[in-house]
Amino acid sequence: MMKIVIIDDESLAIQIIKEYLAEVPQIEVIGQFQNGFDGLKAINELNPDLIFLDIQMPKLTGFEMLELLDNPPLVIFTTAYEEYALKAFEKNAVDYLLKPFSKDRFINALQKAQKSFAENKKSDFSGLLENVNQSKDILDRVVVKESGKIFIIPTNEIYYIESADDYVVISTSNKEYVKHATMKFYESRLPENNFVRIHRSTIINIEYIKEIQPYTKDTLSVIMKNGKSLKTSRQGSVELKKILKI
To answer: Long-range contacts made by residues 164-168, C-beta under 8 angstroms, separation at least 24?
Structure first.
């Protein structure tokens, strides 16, 4: 028996998926949810074998929800946005269904999931998340899971990001958040008009610079509005001057 969870903010989409699944043997729908927060909690509690997942949802997108899962189940995306499904998931998720999808198309996708399930193989989600990370969409927020809570941080509230081994520390005006990610990822996806990498271990938001002082002949000390002093590398000094036009 394959256990299935449906996560979609459209009631009609959930209804259609359930109607199609009702005709398939050895299938059990164990939950249906209309936002990423509830879906995330359900996956961790119910441990489904397969989820039907929308991408654009309130509170938490399908992409963000997957990023917070330690052991993602098989996924079939159900989306109205062709650019997301085709570019990011065609080769990695079990399948994607572009709304509105036909019953035949739905059954075809489900059969792929059943085959993977029968072979006791999960989709390669390390590859899936790598592809998500490789897409060049500019971030307007960062999602962090910490102590069982989920924090959504608008990028315009980020003061700076520092590397910490395999993690990064994201600093705002009053809190630091730790996330498993790379500096390279954020360097390429934060708004380039506001963020600059001043050192191999530091990215700053120029909106929160309070003062800049000479440090060595070729480097600078950047004082942020929260009082933190950050040192540039030689190249970081060049990049900072370039973005500030000084």
So the answer is: none
- For each of the chain's 246 residues, which pLDDT tens digit applies? 999 999 999 999 999 999 999 999 999 999 999 999 999 999 999 999 999 999 999 889 998 998 888 788 999 999 888 887 664 454 468 898 999 999 999 999 999 999 989 876 544 444 444 444 444 578 899 999 887 789 999 999 999 999 998 899 999 998 999 998 899 999 999 999 999 999 999 999 999 999 999 999 999 999 999 999 999 999 999 999 999 998
Cα dihedral 186, 181, 200, 210, rounded to 10, equals: 60
Whether 170 contacts 158, CB under 8 Å:
yes
- d(C-alpha 5, C-alpha 28), whole Å: 9
Q: Name the fold adopted by 2-134.
A: Rossmann fold (3.40.50)
Number of H helices, E strands in the chain: 8, 15
Domain edges within the chain = 2-134, 141-244
- Reference 80, options 97, 63, 102; nearest CA is 97
How many angstroms separate the most distant Cα atoms in the chain?
73
Are 139 and 156 in contact, with CB atoms under 8 Å apart? no
Q: Round to whole Å and give the CA distance between 65 and 162.
A: 24
Class of domain 141-244: mainly beta
